[in-house]
Amino acid sequence: QFVGKTLDEMAAGGIHDQIGGGFSRYSVDDHWLVPHFEKMLYDNAQLARLYLWAGAETGKEHFSEVARRTLGYILRDLRHPEGGFFSSEDADSEGVEGKFYVWTPGEIAEVLGDQAEELMGYYGVTEEGNFEGANILHVVGDEAPPQLDRARRALLEARSGRVRPGLDDKIVASWNGLALRAFAEAGAVLSDDKYLDGARQAAGFVFEHLVEDGRL
Hints:
It is a single chain. 50% of the residues lie in helices and 6% in strands. It is mainly α.
């Protein structure tokens, strides 16, 4: 129960990227709202695996979905073209912490039109904001809007046009090992070849590029 409560609160908080999946490095408050926006491979690999097994053990699809979206973030934004995984993304873009991730009501309305109000209620968006006049999205509503997935996809597409945070493109063997394990286990638990393929390609990258004289 303790673990489940913690995972629920983290998934609902601003530490969790509600639009693009994945988790920031840590929060600066005691209820997971305001993150330090840097995203690390090792955090996301281990959290994906934790949510994966929480879903398998409890039968809560919500946990499995967080695992899928976290693995999806790694594949989309931290993956080398040959299959290995980069180390992290910075907190800042254009010299401003969190600028890539936060929203004003007007920006959401511009993307979603008539659906904006319902989504803003679900994610606690206000004119005053909760972070330097803008909004870190976090779940405050009891029931997800019926078009939540579509709205998130639309916001993700719009966000992709912003200046991205900097990428730390180091590829670290141990961190790739954490990610590889998460993808392999997710492929087995969720019966999804997409994750198994991610694990295989990452392993291939490690053996081709990160082994010297028989040692990682």
